[in-house]
Write a structure and sequence with these properties.
With 131 residues, the chain is α+β, with helices and mostly antiparallel strands. It contains three helices and five strands. The radius of gyration is 14 Å and the shape is globular.
């Protein structure tokens, strides 16, 4: 069972539904993991062998670096990070909430459309912020 780490049962259930919907709706997406800013998995949906616990932990590091870069460059609060690789990409979106700050992690193969995945992750971030 996934620990909710400060999220209400309703918010955690909503996050779980949305993670599943994201990978079901977008071709090429292999994982959608919603984690706390300190790297704890609170909701996830995975196709294949990605480990949600490890994905959540790496997101914490990526977002921490993005936060420092945006702060040092005086660019305002960071929103997202995209890591492109030879065979796919990862999108990390911050979800500022009053109760617990979250990070959305989406992993996709190179067959996925980056702009569409980034858009849907940003929409999910907005939904989870407002939930």
């Amino acid at each position: 069972m996934i620990d909710r780490h400060g999220l209400s049962r309703t918010a955690a259930a909503h996050a779980q539904r949305e993670a599943r919907k994201l990978i079901d709706d977008l071709d090429g997406v292999t994982a959608a993991v919603i984690a706390t800013i300190d790297g704890f998995n609170v909701a996830s949906a995975v196709i294949g062998d990605a480990d949600p616990v490890r994905v959540a932990a790496m997101a914490s590091s990526i977002v921490a670096i993005a936060s420092v870069v945006s702060e040092e460059a005086h660019l305002g609060r960071h929103k997202s990070v995209i890591v492109q690789t030879e065979s796919g990409f990862a999108v990390f979106c911050s979800v500022p909430r009053r109760d617990v700050e979250l990070v959305i992690n989406v992993l996709a193969r190179d067959t996925a459309v980056l702009a569409l995945v980034a858009y849907r992750a940003a929409q999910l971030a907005k939904t989870l912020t407002d939930a």
